[in-house]
Amino acid sequence: MPDPVIDADPVLAGVLLALTIAAEPREAFGAPDDPLIDGLSAGSTGLEDNGSDAPDPWPDVLAMVSSLVNGSTAWQTTYAMIAAPDGDEYRAGLAGFTLRDGVLYELVRLYCDRQPGNVLEKYLDALRTEQLGELGAGFRRDWQLAAADPAFRAAQDEEHHRLFLRPAAELAGSDGLGALGQFVYYDAMVMHGAGGGWMGFAALRDQARRTAVPPADGGDECRYLTAFLDSRHSVTRLLPARPGMFRLESVQRELLGEGNLELERPLCWQIGRRDFHLA
């Protein structure tokens, strides 16, 4: 993910951090009863009930992503994150939601359906038509204010689950991949989109499967994940250069080289010159 430039004052940032960690359970806001997303904004990913004895890998996955996005493993703070506009695009919130394919519009629309009259409602038309110039600095400020509302965090949880988290978990499972594979798939979906097109996740996966056999079909997991990362790298290097665009790939390749396919702790990695550790 690109390194965002965050426009937040210290007082607001502190309030949002406290509220995020102490968030109420999402079921209070009429969200669907789904064990994969139940409780995300309360500090867990809701993936603990996965039918196995393996620990839920998603808090550590989101912590590693957060270390790149905001220099902290406290992934709960990313609900309030919003980058300065990059060309004709915004990247905001838990999954770096973008204007692409109406993702930001659908998220804010869901929030407005659940909480009419909220501070983001006035931006719906601009988000629907993807008119970046009509959003302005006020949108960034109001996004950060909205992140203090448990209903908005619950809406982010639901869209994060629907668009990225569940598809990554299910596809990685169908390919016979472990926790590292889920991390690799999730990160690719967030950055490239889950759909088609030459740079979309489906194309990356198809290319990887042409050069290596996934474990579900009897292939070697390390060899397949290497092929997927190579496929993604070949596409990413054709995109406009952005700070940090290859940093998570480096972390993933290091974990792969260590053979840590289940993201077993302790986890140690480096982003730039900063060291991170999950014991």
Q: SSE layout and pairings?
A:
Elements: H1 10-21, H2 58-70, E1 91-92, E2 97-98, H3 103-114, H4 124-128, H5 136-146, H6 150-174, H7 179-192, H8 201-211, H9 221-236, H10 247-257, E3 267-271, E4 274-278
Antiparallel strand pairs: 1-2, 3-4
Helix pairs in contact: 3-6, 6-7, 7-10, 8-9, 9-10
Overview of this structure, please?
- The structure is a single chain.
- Helices cover 47% and strands 5% of the residues.
- It is mostly helical.
- It has one domain (10-278): Chitosanase, subunit A, domain 1 (Up-down Bundle).
- It has a two-stranded antiparallel sheet. Strands 3-4 form a two-stranded antiparallel sheet.
- Helix 3 crosses helix 6, helix 6 packs across helix 7 (179-192) and helix 8 crosses helix 9.
- The two termini are 24 Å apart.
Please tag this protein with its features.
279 residues, mainly alpha, Chitosanase, subunit A, domain 1, two-stranded antiparallel sheet, 10 helices, disordered N terminus
Brief write-up:
This protein is mostly helical and about 280 residues long. The protein has one domain: Chitosanase, subunit A, domain 1 (Up-down Bundle).
Shape-level CATH architecture: Up-down Bundle
Helical coverage, percent range: 40-55%
Uncertain segments: 1-11, 14-53
CATH topology: Chitosanase, subunit A, domain 1
CATH class: Mainly Alpha
How many DSSP helices?
10
Please indicate the count of domains.
1
